[in-house]
Amino acid sequence: MTSKSDWLKSLGVRYPIFCAPMAGGPSTPELVAAVSDAGGLGFLGAGYLSPDETRRAIRRVRVLTQAPFGVNVFIPETVADERDAVIAMKAWLREQARDDALKAEIDAVHPHPTSAETFAEQMQVILEEQVPVISFTFGCPEPDIIAKWKAAGACVMGTATTPDEAAALEQVGCDAVVAQGYEAGGHRGTFLAMDETRLIGTMALVPQVADRVRVPVIAAGGVMDGRGLVACLALGAQAVQMGTYFLAAAESGANPAYKKALLEWRDRGTILTRSFSGKLARGIRNDFIEAMARSGLDIPPYPLQNALTQPIRRAAAATGDAEHMSLWAGQGYAMAKPMPARDLVRTLVEEMERVKSLLC
Ligand SMILES: Cc1cc2nc3c(=O)[nH]c(=O)nc-3n(C[C@H](O)[C@H](O)[C@H](O)COP(=O)(O)O)c2cc1C
Q1: Which atom of ligand 1 is nearest to the CA of 333?
Q2: Is pLDDT at 175 greater than 80 in this prediction?
Q3: pTM above 0.85, yes or no
Q4: Residue 100: inside a domain, yes or no?
Q5: How many domains would you assign to the chain?
Q6: Of 49, 66, 321, 349, which residue is 20 to 30 A from 113 by alpha carbon distance?
């Protein structure tokens, strides 16, 4: 087994900086390639892509770079029948719609759980394309599935939000674990039942996970500069996965209104919410989240709610209305500055070196 210190080298990655997979638009092949080319590890967020779209995106990354990169998938979940909650939610979303065309789009949504067959097809594509790193979130596959991915030559990483989840991921054979703290932007990767008043921050989570598992740990959540990077390495991580900062990068496919909100709505702060997708996720506060909270409605679980709110989110994206988009972002978002991803990696490396020299 590769020692933890040689792990990044064994992946062909120069710096301990991973660009988080960001499904739903932000992680373009251009962003992935720019980060990997600059010596970090870029990740394609394939969670919402079809098998064909996944193949096209992987091939596009390969046109842009020869450096290693990763692909991230969502593990499908079983969902209880929530017919009443879906009907009530649809009626409420209809009331929020500005015009009849949008109301009709909402009426036409018939949400259903993620198909296990489609997921299997997507994984087949990822294995055929011989992607060097596979990461996943929202679950913990059986050991034989992980063994299959590893047998295809991939380094496999799962997402944990507690030390117990990290131990479960190591147990099923993961090569590394992403420790996602409370500060993190986007959806939480939680897969074991937990008390949500006890969510653990990155500073407390990373050392506990590093003590609990033997495999390398990647810290995620709230890291926005060289100080945070060095701190995570000191806490026992081998690398840091940053999402929010890379959202603001020139190559990120985030909607322009989303990028503007990230850079200008600095006093709004973030909140953990189920409003948009049915799964707990951190984003910048906006009118949609506030209105949903006031409604007092039961929110159907992911991916049902995600499908139900899609027409409203799509219409908001088309008109640049950031009050009705999901503005996923971590607690450190006010520190983000827009720049090309290559410059961001270089800046982070320089900051890291400066901080290290101050500590010695
Ligand atoms: C816009 C956005 C989308 C995300 N999408 C994914 C995803 O598709 N898969 C995943 O494993 N994590 C996803 N995450 C979570 C990241 O992997 C990571 O935990 C998080 O970005 C770290 O916190 P930070 O945003 O403060 O850097 C996403 C985060 C953001 C901000």
Answers
A1: 26
A2: yes
A3: yes
A4: yes
A5: 2
A6: 321
